[in-house]
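We close this part of the discussion by returning to an individual protein. In the encoding step, the backbone of a single protein was reduced to a row of integers, each denoting a local shape. The sequence in question and its structure tokens are set out directly beneath this paragraph.
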Amino acid sequence: MTDLEFFSSRLAQVEKQNRRIKQVLLLAVIAIGGLGIMGQGQRQPGQELRILLQDSAEKRASAERSVVEDLVRARQFVLVDQSGKDRASLVTDAAGSVFLIMFDRNGKPRADLSVGNFGPSLTFLDPTGQARAVFGSTMLVGSHVSDNGAVERTPASSIVLLDRNGKLLWRQP
């Protein structure tokens, strides 16, 4: 017997053992699964009424749940908390701008992420609704005349910090 014949016969034996092991494991998985399913089917006395009540409660709850859609198209979305208060709003306007406004627990707007005709911006508001920080495009600070007399325009992108009265504290650039 040559080495090639020896290795061929040995490989055939190993493959046969491997098939047997797979068959035994498959039978074990089927048996364990069958036992698990049979164990769930056993009921104790008095349990049937509880199951019926639970089934009807589950059916009512599933009927009250919203249908999950693959695509939802709307002009406005409003997110509410457990008590029904508006907590966030995603809206568009006629000019083509988009706004995501987030409200605090008192219903006051506290953050505004928007994409408008002048670019994107993120605005943080204090409890009175006054803008305190603006990141990105802003029209809050207009053009001004610099110390040397040149007119400077507001850049397309900037960081602006304001005090509680809306007075400019810091701006870059």
Q: What stands out?
A: The first strand starts at residue 76 and ends at 80. The chain has a mean pLDDT of 77. The chain is about 35% helix and 30% strand.
